[in-house]
What does this fold into?
Amino acid sequence: MDPMETPSNDRADERAVRQEWRHSMDRTADLKAAGDPTDPTVPAVAAEPPAPTTAADVPAAPAAAPEAPAAATSSSGHPAHVADPRDLVLAIRGLRVSFSGNEILHGVDIDAPRGGVVALVGPSGCGKTTLLRSVNRLTELAPTASITGEVQLDGSNIYDRGTDLNLLRRRVGMVFQQPNPFPMTIFDNVAFAMREQAKTRPSRSSLMPAVQDVLQRAGLWDEVKDNLDRNALSLSGGQQQRLCIARTLAANPEVILMDEPCSALDPRSTARIEELIVQLAGSLTIVIVTHNLAQAKRIGDYAAYLLNGDVIEQGLAQQVFEDPTEQSTRDFVSGMFG
Ligand SMILES: Nc1ncnc2c1ncn2[C@@H]1O[C@H](COP(=O)(O)OP(=O)(O)OP(=O)(O)O)[C@@H](O)[C@H]1O
Ligand SMILES: [Mg+2]
It folds into this structure.
């Protein structure tokens, strides 16, 4: 595997995000309040099994998961999640990313209609993670990165000078391949963004309704409601990933980026997360990278196929997966390569 591929990048991203959180925590003394001296920059899930790195390693969709709903399509031919497919919450235009002068993305255009699930697929190394990380400006944390083009979020280019990166990363949340809860209680993980955004430190009781709401939306409440003070790291991998989604939801994002969020999970947990993604869509927009084509078909309203840093084809997921226009998409979705 190329040493620059996902796992190390994930860790770097997680560290960056945590460092930003940590910065806020230092301001608000939340870390002390959480009573946990553990350094949050240390990868929190060292005990997790290594993530699968190839499509073949990713657990196939469970046969017993009929509850993972297929994306519904309206009579107009557009997914039911999406009120107006011309209403783009994200419009990526001419995005070029290079590392040390080596161009990885060659002028990518991607549309994400508001409320939709956009599945990004393509062979390993084609630039999916780089693309995702460019949507909340994590790519530029690599000192060798250079980025041109635009990422319009609600019509404003996030690369404009003066963009508030903390606000951007709240509006565009990210869920990583490996669940990365903070080393603190379940409650404190979810309350974190709420505390950070409050002017004065809110009481636990005042936060409880919102924490409950977010945990319910993340499909975790029933499993944790009796012990919200349990350390988040003691949860199972699938529960940790749902907690990370809850923590992201707590910041009230418009878009959630998910980079292979199920690749470290078993089939049952994968089905739970898929169900959750479909439920969340509509109220927010999800861009998900997955190597699991069956998953992309099940949950994607829209899909984009990338190859060697170019978007080969994008559109309604059903069209891209079942009736692709390009021969190379056809080869990829039929499993001939990738
Ligand atoms: N920080 C970096 N510095 C140098 N090269 C990088 C960096 N990040 C990514 N790359 C390179 O960019 C290319 C695309 O990597 P990326 O992780 O985006 O691919 P991917 O499509 O997500 O692959 P996978 O499916 O294996 O996760 C790879 O050749 C990778 O080595
Ligand atoms: Mg990747």
Q: What stands out?
A: The CA atoms of residues 218 and 246 lie 5 Å apart. Residues 2, 4-6, 9, 99, 104, 122, 124-130, 142, 144 surround adenosine-5'-triphosphate (ligand 1) (CB under 6 Å). The longest strand covers residues 88-99. The chain is about 35% helix and 20% strand.
